[in-house]
Automatic annotation (TrEMBL):
Residues 1-22 form the signal peptide. Keywords: Signal. It comes from the Bacteria. The keyword Transmembrane helix does not apply. It holds the Pfam family SusD-like_2. This is SusD/RagB family nutrient-binding outer membrane lipoprotein. The keyword Signal applies. It comes from uncultured Polaribacter sp.
């Protein structure tokens, strides 16, 4: 038995070293002139790093992890989406971060830092490196950082605080020292050579990261957040400044979503469907963004509703109509053991997966779809929260909040923002009861608490930015989310709370970098577990769902078009009186 174990480890070492050597060798072959020693240009190196980073963060990980963690996707199959992991998946993520994304980018920094003709391009590479590490450290916690750029397999893990301190200082330096009229990337895959936009990105990312760590490192966060807020002219100022990475229409540049779910006919159990809770929060407030974000159901279910009779505000009638949009709970049709529920009352019984609504295909499943790193709408919500923290700003938190809603509506090309902002719960200083989720345990109500409003709107406005919202929820614990009621069987749990982090690759790191790995694991509260809280996370007590009293209901489906028969008539809806 021990011999077998040793053989497996030996094979794994050989496999991993081969992968790393292969990647390095291929990189050297591509960029080596047979007649002379040459150094690849920043443009050649940077474009590949960005494309691979987009594929990884905005593609694979967003689909398999982040969008479920943010409750944008519902009932999606796969171990990661069901709050577990696979060792092969973790190994792939780790290798892609350090070999495919960071190595080529680091070569720009190493090869051109001393050449004044490349000053801006080196800063651009440092900004990109800071973004990538901001994702790594907020996903895993302490990670290899200081020595990782040296290409060593065995490296120490730098602490969260060290990494955040360094990348915030790097972003500050880049934002203050980049020359708008200086050198730039001749082929810039992000801003098409606009250095001013790189400056705005550096400063906006600095503010975003400062807010992200404000719970765990308040002094560091306030220092950088206040400095960024004191120079708002150097932050994103319109939707034209949105920082988005874009795939292409050439087959080799297709988006992950298009290749996975459109070009290849995917199993219906793994296709992304809209999370019921997210859709509920759009439906409750008659949010015009719903139609821009979500596809109607291919085969709508019929619901029974009670509305005011045409021309009356007192007499009600019962009707039936087709529900145009239908969200899927995070755990699908699963419930919690011990709940005394009559399954016959569950509206989801027997519902085919294809009847649920999907993300808007021409936006989120296109060959050349975009992935947002930060938007003007999001930045306004960040500034609103920064204002509440006393970090400064030229406007009130209320005005930043409203500006964020306006920017989001403009971003998605919809109107009706004034009516929307006047609704109870959305309007600053007001509250709303909301509608109940399927089990009646959470609802879409919004309190008068300013932070509740800001975080809710940031969630609604940031669809498909799963990592950002996961981080926001870990920091604030304010979104009314349901835990995973259908966790992967390997967990051995009836339900699983939102993971606090993603685990390190347990085998590859323990073999190739055991000293660094073991030290990092020893500093985690529960070891290399999904539930070891990161320093940036707000402590909380997980919900004990088995102690709660649920009730099946259809509130999430009622009054979709309004409270009266006249609303249905105005919408041109076919309905039956019963």
């Amino acid at each position: 038995m021990k011999k077998m174990k040793f053989s497996h480890k030996l094979l794994l070492i050989t496999f991993l070293v081969t992968i790393l050597n292969s990647c390095t060798n291929k990189f050297e072959e591509i960029n080596t002139n047979p007649d002379a020693i040459t150094v690849a240009s920043p443009e050649e190196l940077f474009a590949g790093s960005v494309k691979k980073g987009l594929d990884l963060i905005g593609g694979t990980m967003n689909d398999q992890i982040f969008n479920s963690y943010a409750s944008y996707y519902g009932g999606k199959g796969g171990q990661f989406n069901r709050y577990f992991f696979t060792e092969s998946g973790l190994d792939n993520f780790w290798r892609q971060f350090y070999v495919d994304v960071l190595k080529n980018n680091q070569d720009i920094i190493d090869n051109y830092s001393t050449d004044p003709g490349y000053t801006n391009r080196v800063y651009i590479s440092k900004i990109w490196k800071s973004y990538v590490y901001s994702v790594l450290v907020s996903t895993f916690g302490a990670v290899p950082y200081e020595d990782a750029s040296k290409g060593l397999l065995a490296t120490k893990y730098s602490s969260e605080e060290f990494i955040y301190t360094d990348i915030l200082n790097v972003l500050k330096e880049a934002g203050e020292n980049m020359d708008p009229n200086g050198d730039g990337l001749l082929q810039d895959p992000v801003f098409n050579g606009d250095n001013t936009k790189w400056i705005k990105f550096a400063n906006s990312l600095r503010l975003k990261i400062a807010l992200r760590i404000s719970e765990g490192f308040p002094t560091l966060a306030q220092q950088h957040g206040s400095e960024a807020m004191a120079n708002e002219n150097n932050l994103l100022s319109t939707n034209l400044d949105n920082v988005s990475l874009k795939w292409g229409i050439e087959e080799e540049n297709w988006s992950f979503n298009y290749r996975r779910y459109i070009f290849i006919t995917a199993n219906q159990d793994v296709v992304p469907y809209i999370n019921l809770n997210y859709l509920l929060n759009l439906k409750t407030y008659r949010d015009p963004r719903l139609v821009a974000l979500i596809e109607p159901s291919l085969n709508p279910i019929t619901v029974r509703d009670e509305v005011f009779k045409s021309g009356s505000t007192t007499e009600k009638i019962s009707i039936e109509y087709e529900l145009p949009y239908f969200g899927r709970p995070l755990g699908g049709n699963a419930t919690v053991d011990g709940w005394d529920l009559n399954g016959n009352n569950n509206i989801l019984n027997g519902v085919e997966t294809r009847r649920y609504s999907r993300p808007k295909v021409d936006v989120f499943m296109a060959q050349d779809m975009s992935y947002n790193l930060i938007t003007y709408a999001e930045l306004n919500f960040i500034k609103a929260e920064a204002q509440l923290k006393g970090w400064g700003g030229s406007q009130t938190a209320e005005q930043y909040y409203y500006d964020g809603i306006d920017a989001s509506f403009q971003q998605y090309g919809v109107t009706g923002e004034n009516e929307y902002k006047a609704r109870d719960g959305i309007k600053w200083g007001t509250s709303s009861t909301g509608d109940r989720h399927l089990f009646g345990l959470v609802n879409s109500g919004i309190s008068a608490n300013p932070l509740d409003k800001i975080t809710r709107q940031r969630w609604l406005a940031s669809f498909n930015q799963g990592h950002d919202i996961w981080c926001m929820q870990k920091r604030t614990r304010l979104l009314p989310l349901i835990d995973q009621f259908a966790p992967d069987g390997a967990l051995g749990l009836d339900y699983a709370a939102l993971p606090e982090r993603m685990v390190y690759p347990p085998f590859s790191e323990s073999i190739l970098n055991n000293d660094g790995f073991q030290e990092a694991v020893s500093n985690l509260s529960q070891g290399n577990s999904l539930y070891s809280e990161l320093k940036m996370n707000k402590p909380y007590t997980p919900v004990k769902w088995e102690t709660m009293i649920p009730e099946f209901n259809q509130d999430f489906a009622t009054h979709f078009y309004g409270d009266s028969e006249d609303d249905l008539i105005a919408a041109g809806v076919t309905y039956i009186k019963i």
